[in-house]
């Protein structure tokens, strides 16, 4: 049994899934947007007061992809779209001081001190040179 058969198909068959295209605003604090590069992948943006977070899932499967967004994983079926989407999301997160969360680890937070600032400065410097 694959992941779809195990985890997705039963939810669809039970009529418990809400299907969406492009973007879906769940409420004033939660939004889902397509994240091209990985099939059926969405990025979730969460707002709590002035704090922001973006959940990127497999779009940045490894923390190294925050420092080197041009690196793809085996989940990036459309490699060019994945790189463009990673750059767009990371740039947005840096500009908005948003926490970036992957499915498996936190990539960084503006409140975590100089470690995050170094990641942010390194990544933005690379992005601006390209």
Given the C-alpha coordinates, what overall shape results?
Answer: globular
**Number of domain units:** 1
Helix content: 25-40%
Query: Termini, distance in Å?
Result: 43 Å
Largest sheet: 6 strands, mixed
The CATH homologous superfamily is named: Ribonuclease Z/Hydroxyacylglutathione hydrolase-like
Class computed from helices, strands and strand pairing: alpha+beta
Q: What is the alpha-carbon Rg in Å?
A: 16 Å
CATH topology: Metallo-beta-lactamase, Chain A
For the largest sheet, list the strands in their spatial order: 1-2-3-4-5-6
Give the C-level CATH assignment: Alpha Beta
Summed up, the helix count is: 4
Amount of beta strand: 15-25%
Q: Roughly what is the average pLDDT, rounded to an integer? A: 78
Which parts are unreliable, with pLDDT below 50 for 5 consecutive residues or more?
A: 105-116, 126-130
CATH architecture: 4-Layer Sandwich
Element pattern in H and E: HEEEEHHEEH
Let me know the number of strands. Answer: 6
Describe this structure in words.
The protein has a single domain (19-129), classed as Metallo-beta-lactamase, Chain A (4-Layer Sandwich), CATH 3.60.15.10. The chain starts with a helix and ends with a helix. The protein is globular and about 40 Å long. With 130 residues, it is of the alpha+beta class. α3 (79-95) crosses α4. A hairpin with a 7-residue loop joins β2 (30-34) and β3. The protein is built from 4 helices and 6 strands. Helices cover 37% and strands 24% of the residues. The chain has helices at residues 3-13, 64-67, 79-95, 114-129, and strands at residues 23-27, 30-34, 42-48, 51-57, 99-102, 106-108. A 6-stranded mixed beta sheet has the order 1-2-3-4-5-6.
